[in-house]
Task: inverse folding
Protein backbone atom coordinates (compact mmCIF):
# COMPACT_ATOMS: atom_id res chain seq x y z
CA UNK A 1 0.00 0.00 0.00
CA UNK A 2 1.30 3.47 -0.90
CA UNK A 3 0.43 5.61 2.10
CA UNK A 4 1.67 8.84 0.55
CA UNK A 5 -1.16 8.90 -1.98
CA UNK A 6 -3.76 7.90 0.63
CA UNK A 7 -2.52 10.52 3.08
CA UNK A 8 -2.73 13.24 0.43
CA UNK A 9 -6.33 12.29 -0.34
CA UNK A 10 -7.19 12.08 3.35
CA UNK A 11 -5.97 15.62 3.97
CA UNK A 12 -8.49 16.86 1.43
CA UNK A 13 -11.32 14.58 2.52
CA UNK A 14 -14.19 14.62 4.97
CA UNK A 15 -15.17 11.02 5.68
CA UNK A 16 -18.08 10.70 8.12
CA UNK A 17 -18.05 7.51 10.16
CA UNK A 18 -20.18 5.82 12.79
CA UNK A 19 -18.88 3.28 15.29
CA UNK A 20 -21.25 0.61 16.60
CA UNK A 21 -19.82 -1.00 19.74
CA UNK A 22 -17.56 0.92 22.13
CA UNK A 23 -15.57 -1.89 23.69
CA UNK A 24 -11.79 -2.01 23.53
CA UNK A 25 -11.68 -1.77 19.74
CA UNK A 26 -14.38 0.88 19.35
CA UNK A 27 -12.94 3.02 22.11
CA UNK A 28 -9.45 2.95 20.61
CA UNK A 29 -10.88 3.92 17.21
CA UNK A 30 -12.97 6.73 18.69
CA UNK A 31 -9.80 8.20 20.19
CA UNK A 32 -7.57 7.77 17.14
CA UNK A 33 -10.13 8.85 14.55
CA UNK A 34 -10.18 12.35 16.03
CA UNK A 35 -6.47 12.57 15.21
CA UNK A 36 -6.45 10.89 11.79
CA UNK A 37 -6.66 13.21 8.76
CA UNK A 38 -9.94 13.17 6.88
CA UNK A 39 -12.02 11.27 9.43
CA UNK A 40 -14.95 12.59 11.45
CA UNK A 41 -16.85 10.44 13.93
CA UNK A 42 -20.44 11.65 13.60
CA UNK A 43 -22.19 8.91 15.59
CA UNK A 44 -21.43 6.19 18.11
CA UNK A 45 -23.69 3.40 19.32
CA UNK A 46 -23.45 1.14 22.34
CA UNK A 47 -25.82 -0.76 24.59
CA UNK A 48 -24.62 1.65 27.28
CA UNK A 49 -24.87 5.18 25.81
CA UNK A 50 -23.12 6.63 28.84
CA UNK A 51 -20.10 4.43 28.16
CA UNK A 52 -20.08 5.58 24.55
CA UNK A 53 -20.37 9.20 25.59
CA UNK A 54 -17.52 8.78 28.07
CA UNK A 55 -15.32 7.33 25.33
CA UNK A 56 -15.93 10.38 23.13
CA UNK A 57 -15.14 12.76 25.97
CA UNK A 58 -11.96 10.80 26.79
CA UNK A 59 -11.00 11.19 23.12
CA UNK A 60 -11.22 14.97 23.46
CA UNK A 61 -14.77 15.80 22.39
CA UNK A 62 -16.30 18.57 24.52
CA UNK A 63 -18.99 17.10 26.76
CA UNK A 64 -21.67 19.45 25.43
CA UNK A 65 -21.12 18.10 21.90
CA UNK A 66 -21.87 14.45 22.76
CA UNK A 67 -25.65 14.28 22.33
CA UNK A 68 -27.55 11.22 23.53
CA UNK A 69 -30.38 10.83 21.04
CA UNK A 70 -33.54 8.77 20.89
CA UNK A 71 -34.91 8.51 17.35
CA UNK A 72 -34.05 9.85 13.91
CA UNK A 73 -35.43 13.41 14.34
CA UNK A 74 -33.35 14.03 17.46
CA UNK A 75 -30.25 12.53 15.82
CA UNK A 76 -30.70 14.61 12.67
CA UNK A 77 -31.07 17.77 14.72
CA UNK A 78 -27.91 16.92 16.67
CA UNK A 79 -25.90 16.50 13.48
CA UNK A 80 -27.20 19.81 12.17
CA UNK A 81 -25.91 21.46 15.36
CA UNK A 82 -22.50 19.89 14.81
CA UNK A 83 -22.87 17.44 17.70
CA UNK A 84 -21.90 13.78 17.71
CA UNK A 85 -24.86 11.42 17.98
CA UNK A 86 -24.77 8.95 20.87
CA UNK A 87 -27.38 6.18 20.79
CA UNK A 88 -28.14 2.60 21.75
CA UNK A 89 -30.02 2.01 18.47
CA UNK A 90 -27.77 0.40 15.85
CA UNK A 91 -30.48 0.54 13.21
CA UNK A 92 -30.69 4.32 13.61
CA UNK A 93 -27.00 4.75 12.85
CA UNK A 94 -27.12 3.42 9.29
CA UNK A 95 -29.93 5.84 8.41
CA UNK A 96 -27.84 8.91 9.26
CA UNK A 97 -26.00 10.85 6.53
CA UNK A 98 -22.57 9.25 6.74
CA UNK A 99 -20.06 7.34 4.63
CA UNK A 100 -18.80 4.37 6.64
CA UNK A 101 -20.30 2.20 9.37
CA UNK A 102 -17.78 0.41 11.59
CA UNK A 103 -19.44 -2.64 13.18
CA UNK A 104 -17.62 -3.62 16.39
CA UNK A 105 -20.26 -5.12 18.67
CA UNK A 106 -18.84 -8.65 18.59
CA UNK A 107 -22.45 -9.89 18.68
CA UNK A 108 -23.18 -12.09 15.63
CA UNK A 109 -26.91 -11.39 15.33
CA UNK A 110 -26.62 -7.66 15.90
CA UNK A 111 -23.60 -7.34 13.62
CA UNK A 112 -25.40 -9.14 10.80
CA UNK A 113 -28.42 -6.86 11.16
CA UNK A 114 -26.32 -3.68 11.26
CA UNK A 115 -24.22 -4.65 8.24
CA UNK A 116 -27.28 -5.69 6.25
CA UNK A 117 -29.01 -2.37 6.87
CA UNK A 118 -25.88 -0.29 6.31
CA UNK A 119 -25.30 -1.82 2.88
CA UNK A 120 -28.96 -1.35 1.97
CA UNK A 121 -28.63 2.32 2.96
CA UNK A 122 -25.59 2.73 0.72
CA UNK A 123 -22.89 2.82 3.41
CA UNK A 124 -19.51 1.15 3.27
CA UNK A 125 -19.10 -1.42 6.05
CA UNK A 126 -15.94 -2.03 8.04
CA UNK A 127 -16.57 -5.33 9.83
CA UNK A 128 -14.71 -5.79 13.10
CA UNK A 129 -17.18 -8.39 14.39
CA UNK A 130 -15.54 -11.57 13.12
CA UNK A 131 -18.38 -13.59 14.64
CA UNK A 132 -20.80 -12.47 11.93
CA UNK A 133 -18.12 -12.25 9.26
CA UNK A 134 -17.27 -15.92 9.71
CA UNK A 135 -20.88 -16.89 8.95
CA UNK A 136 -22.00 -14.51 6.18
CA UNK A 137 -19.01 -12.34 5.28
CA UNK A 138 -18.80 -13.61 1.68
CA UNK A 139 -22.47 -12.71 1.14
CA UNK A 140 -21.91 -9.17 2.36
CA UNK A 141 -18.82 -8.87 0.14
CA UNK A 142 -20.85 -9.93 -2.89
CA UNK A 143 -23.67 -7.52 -2.07
CA UNK A 144 -21.27 -4.65 -1.56
CA UNK A 145 -19.45 -5.25 -4.82
CA UNK A 146 -22.74 -5.40 -6.74
CA UNK A 147 -23.77 -2.05 -5.22
CA UNK A 148 -20.44 -0.30 -5.79
CA UNK A 149 -19.73 -0.34 -2.05
CA UNK A 150 -16.98 -1.80 0.11
CA UNK A 151 -17.33 -4.49 2.76
CA UNK A 152 -14.00 -5.05 4.43
CA UNK A 153 -12.10 -6.48 7.38
CA UNK A 154 -10.15 -3.91 9.34
CA UNK A 155 -6.53 -2.95 9.83
CA UNK A 156 -5.81 -3.32 13.52
CA UNK A 157 -7.20 -6.83 13.64
CA UNK A 158 -5.23 -9.86 12.54
CA UNK A 159 -7.25 -11.12 9.53
CA UNK A 160 -6.83 -7.92 7.53
CA UNK A 161 -3.16 -7.59 8.46
CA UNK A 162 -2.38 -11.19 7.52
CA UNK A 163 -4.36 -11.02 4.28
CA UNK A 164 -2.37 -7.97 3.22
CA UNK A 165 0.95 -9.57 4.18
CA UNK A 166 0.09 -12.67 2.15
CA UNK A 167 -1.01 -10.61 -0.85
CA UNK A 168 2.26 -8.66 -0.64
CA UNK A 169 4.19 -11.94 -0.60
CA UNK A 170 2.31 -13.21 -3.65
CA UNK A 171 2.92 -9.92 -5.44
CA UNK A 172 6.65 -10.40 -4.78
CA UNK A 173 6.43 -13.85 -6.36
CA UNK A 174 6.98 -15.72 -3.11
CA UNK A 175 5.49 -19.19 -2.62
CA UNK A 176 3.43 -19.24 0.57
CA UNK A 177 3.84 -22.42 2.59
CA UNK A 178 1.66 -21.19 5.47
CA UNK A 179 -0.05 -18.08 6.77
CA UNK A 180 -0.48 -17.76 10.52
CA UNK A 181 -0.88 -15.52 13.53
CA UNK A 182 0.42 -15.62 17.04
CA UNK A 183 -2.26 -16.27 19.60
CA UNK A 184 -3.33 -13.17 21.49
CA UNK A 185 -1.33 -13.94 24.65
CA UNK A 186 2.20 -15.34 24.79
CA UNK A 187 3.37 -18.32 26.79
CA UNK A 188 6.03 -16.74 29.01
CA UNK A 189 8.59 -19.11 30.54
CA UNK A 190 10.47 -18.21 33.72
CA UNK A 191 13.61 -20.42 33.79
CA UNK A 192 14.17 -19.68 37.48
CA UNK A 193 10.86 -21.24 38.54
CA UNK A 194 9.90 -23.54 35.63
CA UNK A 195 6.55 -21.73 35.49
CA UNK A 196 4.88 -20.81 32.21
CA UNK A 197 2.30 -18.02 32.31
CA UNK A 198 -0.31 -17.08 29.72
CA UNK A 199 -2.18 -13.89 30.63
CA UNK A 200 -3.56 -14.62 34.11
CA UNK A 201 -3.05 -18.39 34.13
CA UNK A 202 0.11 -20.23 35.08
CA UNK A 203 1.34 -23.82 34.87
CA UNK A 204 4.20 -25.39 36.76
CA UNK A 205 6.34 -27.40 34.34
CA UNK A 206 9.31 -28.99 36.12
CA UNK A 207 12.15 -29.59 33.70
CA UNK A 208 10.58 -27.43 30.99
CA UNK A 209 13.97 -25.87 30.32
CA UNK A 210 14.97 -29.13 28.62
CA UNK A 211 12.27 -28.41 26.03
CA UNK A 212 13.38 -24.83 25.40
CA UNK A 213 15.40 -25.68 22.26
CA UNK A 214 15.10 -28.38 19.60
CA UNK A 215 18.76 -29.30 19.67
CA UNK A 216 19.24 -32.37 17.49
CA UNK A 217 15.74 -33.68 18.26
CA UNK A 218 12.74 -33.88 15.95
CA UNK A 219 10.95 -30.48 16.18
CA UNK A 220 7.49 -32.10 16.05
CA UNK A 221 8.42 -34.30 19.01
CA UNK A 222 9.61 -31.35 21.08
CA UNK A 223 6.44 -29.41 20.30
CA UNK A 224 4.30 -32.39 21.33
CA UNK A 225 6.21 -32.64 24.61
CA UNK A 226 5.65 -28.93 25.29
CA UNK A 227 1.93 -29.31 24.67
CA UNK A 228 1.78 -32.22 27.09
CA UNK A 229 3.77 -30.39 29.77
CA UNK A 230 1.49 -27.34 29.50
CA UNK A 231 -1.87 -29.08 29.07
CA UNK A 232 -3.21 -27.01 31.98
CA UNK A 233 -3.04 -23.92 29.74
CA UNK A 234 -5.57 -23.41 26.90
CA UNK A 235 -3.76 -23.92 23.61
CA UNK A 236 -6.61 -23.32 21.18
CA UNK A 237 -9.37 -20.71 21.15
CA UNK A 238 -12.45 -20.30 19.01
CA UNK A 239 -11.46 -16.68 18.37
CA UNK A 240 -8.24 -17.77 16.66
CA UNK A 241 -10.07 -20.34 14.54
CA UNK A 242 -12.64 -17.71 13.57
CA UNK A 243 -10.06 -15.22 12.41
CA UNK A 244 -7.99 -17.74 10.49
CA UNK A 245 -11.11 -19.11 8.82
CA UNK A 246 -11.72 -15.62 7.46
CA UNK A 247 -8.13 -15.55 6.18
CA UNK A 248 -8.48 -18.98 4.55
CA UNK A 249 -11.63 -17.86 2.74
CA UNK A 250 -10.06 -14.61 1.59
CA UNK A 251 -6.84 -16.14 0.27
CA UNK A 252 -8.03 -19.58 -0.87
CA UNK A 253 -5.75 -21.32 1.61
CA UNK A 254 -6.36 -24.70 3.21
CA UNK A 255 -6.62 -26.05 6.75
CA UNK A 256 -4.13 -28.80 7.54
CA UNK A 257 -5.77 -29.78 10.84
CA UNK A 258 -9.37 -28.87 11.66
CA UNK A 259 -8.51 -27.51 15.13
CA UNK A 260 -4.99 -26.34 14.12
CA UNK A 261 -1.59 -27.65 15.11
CA UNK A 262 -1.23 -24.55 17.32
CA UNK A 263 2.35 -25.32 18.36
CA UNK A 264 3.91 -23.79 21.46
CA UNK A 265 6.94 -22.38 19.70
CA UNK A 266 9.62 -19.72 19.87
CA UNK A 267 9.68 -17.16 17.07
CA UNK A 268 12.87 -18.53 15.50
CA UNK A 269 11.32 -22.00 15.30
CA UNK A 270 8.33 -21.08 13.14
CA UNK A 271 10.02 -21.68 9.74
CA UNK A 272 10.92 -25.22 10.87
CA UNK A 273 7.36 -26.01 11.99
CA UNK A 274 4.71 -24.42 9.75
CA UNK A 275 6.00 -26.11 6.61
CA UNK A 276 5.46 -29.43 4.85
CA UNK A 277 7.71 -31.94 6.56
CA UNK A 278 7.49 -29.98 9.81
CA UNK A 279 3.96 -30.03 11.20
CA UNK A 280 2.11 -29.54 7.92
CA UNK A 281 1.23 -32.27 5.45
CA UNK A 282 0.91 -29.89 2.49
CA UNK A 283 1.75 -26.27 1.56
CA UNK A 284 -0.73 -23.42 1.61
CA UNK A 285 -2.35 -23.77 5.03
CA UNK A 286 -3.45 -21.43 7.82
CA UNK A 287 -2.58 -22.04 11.46
CA UNK A 288 -1.84 -20.38 14.81
CA UNK A 289 1.27 -20.31 17.03
CA UNK A 290 1.30 -20.01 20.79
CA UNK A 291 4.41 -17.87 21.05
CA UNK A 292 6.87 -19.13 23.67
CA UNK A 293 9.34 -16.64 25.11
CA UNK A 294 11.19 -15.62 28.24
CA UNK A 295 10.06 -12.47 30.10
CA UNK A 296 13.02 -10.51 28.70
CA UNK A 297 12.40 -11.44 25.06
CA UNK A 298 10.60 -9.48 22.35
CA UNK A 299 6.96 -10.39 21.77
CA UNK A 300 5.22 -10.54 18.41
CA UNK A 301 2.29 -8.92 20.27
CA UNK A 302 -0.32 -10.94 18.43
CA UNK A 303 1.41 -10.25 15.13
CA UNK A 304 0.99 -12.15 11.86
CA UNK A 305 3.41 -13.94 9.56
CA UNK A 306 3.79 -15.91 6.36
CA UNK A 307 6.29 -18.69 5.86
CA UNK A 308 7.59 -18.85 2.30
CA UNK A 309 9.77 -21.19 0.26
CA UNK A 310 13.43 -20.20 -0.09
CA UNK A 311 13.75 -20.88 -3.80
CA UNK A 312 17.05 -19.00 -4.17
CA UNK A 313 19.28 -20.35 -1.41
CA UNK A 314 22.01 -17.73 -1.92
CA UNK A 315 19.63 -14.81 -1.40
CA UNK A 316 18.10 -16.31 1.72
CA UNK A 317 21.49 -17.11 3.24
CA UNK A 318 22.35 -13.44 2.79
CA UNK A 319 19.06 -12.54 4.46
CA UNK A 320 19.68 -15.00 7.29
CA UNK A 321 22.90 -13.15 8.04
CA UNK A 322 20.87 -9.95 8.30
CA UNK A 323 18.68 -11.53 10.99
CA UNK A 324 15.76 -12.88 8.99
CA UNK A 325 14.03 -16.04 10.17
CA UNK A 326 15.25 -18.88 7.97
CA UNK A 327 14.73 -22.56 8.73
CA UNK A 328 17.67 -24.67 9.83
CA UNK A 329 17.84 -26.45 6.49
CA UNK A 330 17.51 -23.21 4.54
CA UNK A 331 14.36 -24.20 2.65
CA UNK A 332 11.83 -21.84 4.27
CA UNK A 333 11.68 -18.39 5.83
CA UNK A 334 9.13 -16.64 8.03
CA UNK A 335 8.27 -13.00 7.37
CA UNK A 336 6.65 -11.24 10.31
CA UNK A 337 4.45 -8.20 10.77
CA UNK A 338 4.53 -7.77 14.59
CA UNK A 339 1.67 -5.28 14.65
CA UNK A 340 -1.84 -5.66 16.09
CA UNK A 341 -3.02 -2.24 17.23
CA UNK A 342 -6.84 -2.42 17.23
CA UNK A 343 -8.49 0.89 16.34
CA UNK A 344 -5.20 2.75 16.55
CA UNK A 345 -4.36 1.71 12.99
CA UNK A 346 -7.83 1.36 11.48
CA UNK A 347 -7.93 4.72 9.69
CA UNK A 348 -6.19 3.11 6.71
CA UNK A 349 -9.05 0.68 6.09
CA UNK A 350 -11.72 3.33 6.53
CA UNK A 351 -10.00 5.77 4.17
CA UNK A 352 -9.35 3.08 1.55
CA UNK A 353 -13.03 2.17 1.57
CA UNK A 354 -14.37 5.72 1.42
CA UNK A 355 -11.80 7.35 -0.86
CA UNK A 356 -10.61 4.56 -3.14
CA UNK A 357 -13.44 2.02 -2.97
CA UNK A 358 -10.92 -0.62 -1.92
CA UNK A 359 -10.96 -3.30 0.75
CA UNK A 360 -8.20 -4.21 3.20
CA UNK A 361 -8.99 -7.82 2.44
CA UNK A 362 -10.03 -9.39 -0.87
CA UNK A 363 -13.21 -9.51 -2.91
CA UNK A 364 -13.82 -13.15 -2.07
CA UNK A 365 -17.49 -14.05 -2.33
CA UNK A 366 -17.31 -17.88 -2.20
CA UNK A 367 -16.61 -19.39 1.24
CA UNK A 368 -14.24 -22.35 1.45
CA UNK A 369 -14.43 -23.16 5.17
CA UNK A 370 -16.87 -22.80 8.04
CA UNK A 371 -16.16 -22.63 11.73
CA UNK A 372 -18.30 -25.35 13.33
CA UNK A 373 -18.71 -26.81 16.83
CA UNK A 374 -17.80 -30.27 18.10
CA UNK A 375 -19.14 -31.43 21.47
CA UNK A 376 -16.33 -31.90 23.98
CA UNK A 377 -18.74 -33.46 26.50
CA UNK A 378 -22.24 -34.95 26.12
CA UNK A 379 -24.77 -32.18 25.54
CA UNK A 380 -28.38 -32.78 26.51
CA UNK A 381 -31.49 -31.74 24.61
CA UNK A 382 -32.67 -28.37 25.89
CA UNK A 383 -29.13 -27.07 26.51
CA UNK A 384 -28.81 -23.37 25.73
CA UNK A 385 -25.75 -22.77 23.56
CA UNK A 386 -24.36 -19.35 24.43
CA UNK A 387 -21.04 -17.85 23.34
CA UNK A 388 -19.32 -16.55 26.47
CA UNK A 389 -16.18 -14.82 27.66
CA UNK A 390 -13.40 -12.92 25.93
CA UNK A 391 -12.92 -15.62 23.30
CA UNK A 392 -16.67 -16.24 22.77
CA UNK A 393 -16.50 -19.96 23.51
CA UNK A 394 -19.66 -22.07 23.78
CA UNK A 395 -19.25 -24.18 26.95
CA UNK A 396 -18.84 -27.88 26.27
CA UNK A 397 -17.75 -27.42 22.65
CA UNK A 398 -14.59 -26.90 20.63
CA UNK A 399 -14.30 -25.13 17.31
CA UNK A 400 -13.12 -26.68 14.06
CA UNK A 401 -12.67 -25.41 10.51
CA UNK A 402 -14.44 -27.68 8.04
CA UNK A 403 -15.26 -27.32 4.32
CA UNK A 404 -18.13 -24.88 3.89
CA UNK A 405 -21.47 -26.42 3.03
CA UNK A 406 -25.10 -25.41 2.95
CA UNK A 407 -26.76 -25.59 6.36
CA UNK A 408 -29.45 -28.12 5.53
CA UNK A 409 -30.43 -31.58 6.75
CA UNK A 410 -27.72 -32.96 9.02
CA UNK A 411 -25.03 -30.46 8.04
CA UNK A 412 -22.98 -28.81 10.81
CA UNK A 413 -24.26 -25.42 11.95
CA UNK A 414 -21.70 -22.58 11.78
CA UNK A 415 -20.47 -21.86 15.28
CA UNK A 416 -21.96 -18.42 15.87
CA UNK A 417 -25.33 -19.37 14.40
CA UNK A 418 -25.64 -21.63 17.44
CA UNK A 419 -25.29 -18.89 20.02
CA UNK A 420 -28.52 -18.13 21.84
CA UNK A 421 -30.30 -21.27 20.65
CA UNK A 422 -31.17 -24.59 22.29
CA UNK A 423 -30.53 -28.17 21.34
CA UNK A 424 -33.58 -30.16 20.32
CA UNK A 425 -31.76 -33.48 20.68
CA UNK A 426 -28.80 -34.90 22.57
CA UNK A 427 -25.33 -34.49 21.05
CA UNK A 428 -22.80 -37.15 21.99
CA UNK A 429 -19.29 -36.19 23.03
CA UNK A 430 -17.11 -36.07 19.92
CA UNK A 431 -19.97 -35.32 17.52
CA UNK A 432 -20.40 -32.18 15.45
CA UNK A 433 -23.41 -30.02 16.34
CA UNK A 434 -25.66 -30.40 13.31
CA UNK A 435 -28.82 -28.72 12.12
CA UNK A 436 -31.08 -31.64 12.97
CA UNK A 437 -29.99 -31.33 16.64
CA UNK A 438 -30.72 -27.58 16.99
CA UNK A 439 -33.95 -25.64 17.52
CA UNK A 440 -33.97 -23.27 14.56
CA UNK A 441 -35.10 -19.75 15.51
CA UNK A 442 -38.42 -18.43 14.27
CA UNK A 443 -36.71 -15.20 13.27
CA UNK A 444 -33.00 -14.49 12.95
CA UNK A 445 -31.24 -12.13 10.57
CA UNK A 446 -28.06 -14.19 10.78
CA UNK A 447 -29.86 -17.44 9.90
CA UNK A 448 -31.83 -15.75 7.10
CA UNK A 449 -28.68 -14.29 5.56
CA UNK A 450 -26.89 -17.59 5.79
CA UNK A 451 -29.77 -19.28 3.98
CA UNK A 452 -29.41 -16.68 1.23
CA UNK A 453 -25.68 -17.36 0.98
CA UNK A 454 -26.24 -21.12 1.06
CA UNK A 455 -27.97 -20.98 -2.31
CA UNK A 456 -24.46 -21.03 -3.82
CA UNK A 457 -23.05 -23.75 -1.55
CA UNK A 458 -23.14 -27.53 -2.00
CA UNK A 459 -25.57 -29.46 0.23
CA UNK A 460 -23.15 -32.32 0.95
Result:
Amino acid sequence: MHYGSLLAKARQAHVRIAIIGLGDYGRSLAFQARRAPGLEVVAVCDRDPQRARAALIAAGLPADRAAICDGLPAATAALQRGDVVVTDDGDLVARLPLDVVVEATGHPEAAARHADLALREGRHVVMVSKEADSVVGPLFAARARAAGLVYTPVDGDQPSLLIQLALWARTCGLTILSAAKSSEYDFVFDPATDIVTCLNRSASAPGFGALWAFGDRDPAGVVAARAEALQALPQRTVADLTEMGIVANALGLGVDRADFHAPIARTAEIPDLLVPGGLLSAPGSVDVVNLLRRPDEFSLAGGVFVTVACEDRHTWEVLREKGHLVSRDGTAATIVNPVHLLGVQSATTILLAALERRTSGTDTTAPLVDLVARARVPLKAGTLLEAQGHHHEIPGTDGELRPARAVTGSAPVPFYMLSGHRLRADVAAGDLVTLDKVEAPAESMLWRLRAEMDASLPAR
In short: DSSP finds 15 helices and 21 strands in the chain. The chain has three domains: 3-154+343-354, 160-301, 369-454. Residues 160-301 form one domain. Residues 130-146 form the longest helix (17 residues).
